[in-house]
Here is the input.
Amino acid sequence: MKLKLGKLPSEVTTRLTIIVPEKLKGQLERYATLHSETWNQPVSATQIIPHILSKFLSVDRAFQRSERSFDRCAKSELGANDNLCSNPVESGD
Here is the structure.
């Protein structure tokens, strides 16, 4: 079976609490079980959620354009607080 997520890396984490519908909780738990079986790497739903979100953000083209724009503004002499950098997302996508 080919899952979108590969083996999970070890990373420094921070706590974030979210509330999800029961149906989604069940889906996440089943995905975690399938991932564990596929990669022979025990993982819970709470452990896999950050990786699912990261994968989602990495394939969202509009978000990636926004991130590149934000990075350019942050590195520029204008700084991220300048009006040119306050809203890097362009309308029309």
Observations:
- The CA atoms of residues 30 and 41 lie 14 Å apart.
- The chain has a mean pLDDT of 83.
- Residues 22-39 form the longest helix (18 residues).
